[in-house]
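Quick question, first post here. What does this chain look like in 3D?
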Amino acid sequence: MSLNLASETAAALMADAARSIDESNRKHPSLEVLCARLERIMHGLAAKAILDAGELPERAGIVTLPVWSWEHPLIDVGRKDKAHGTGERMLMPVRNAWDTPVVVLVTDEAVPVSYRTRGMGHATAGQSKLVRRLGEAPVAAVTTLPSLTEPVFVGSGMKSRNASYLTALVKAGEAAHWDVLTDLEPKLRSTVFQAHSFVCYEIGLSTGTVEPMLDELGLEQVVDAMMYGEIRDEEAGEREKGKPSAMFRLIELCLEPDCFVKVDPLKYMTKHMRRDAETQIRRRLGDPHIGPKIREIARRHPRAEIADIVDAYREVYPKDRLSLPRARAALSVSPSASARSTLLAPEGFTGSPVYEGSQAA
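> Answer (accepted):
Ran it through. Tokens below.
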């Protein structure tokens, strides 16, 4: 009986230890979804570049390289790396930057590659080889960083097969782009309402009354413009061409190698969404981007004429070159006609996480 009890105890301890290791190596769930989609976008763009470059070789191997490594952060990320309920530390994404595209056609016997990994307080570099070898699969999807002692082996596929696979990567990247955009929309809407409340409060410091500046339709127009771009023709519903929306630009920024060196992706995206939302709201109100600074100077000189306010402003911010028209615009900002009925914090409003990522990657 004692031997059986000892065996059961040992088995339980081993199971607990394995579970503890597994939990400590868990990726942040929302970021895992987001980063998987960003990786598919980057693979799709790299595949499109290969297809656009011209005729494919008759035979070649295809290697997709990993965009992310996952590490415990060495910088302060608040509680983002703590599992809900247990407090276990989770892995956070660190960006891999390659000296080659993240999708490589291997036509030679070996292609040397090198990489650097920076982010979350980590900074490493390495190199490896993509080696074409008989008997291997024609496509190698690499998920962890290789090394010189552990190169990537890939076989060789026919041109038609490679073209089909590259086309599939392009389509998957396009779908992932829309998935990211769709999942960001709820947070964008709440961010716009938060930015509107802040703008109303800031203007209210000067007017003496904190009141809504935009009505609900105006706020929805802000969300729509940030999601899909400014509308050029209201009747035809045509949007401005050649000018990506704020959210499209945000996704493009997230593809840059050094984007998340000093900050985690959630904080980065939240910061940019809030800044762009505030800019859009002020633009619709006719408020100059330096409006808050102008009103701050005006509050310091409550009985001053506008020309005196401009002079005082120029002393503090000479590089802004403030003109009288811009000063008048900032000091005469008023709410839209139907804005008074708008709630500053609408019913059902929540400050939801920037990226829920509840869907499967």
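The chain has two domains: 2-169, 175-341.
The longest strand covers residues 122-132.
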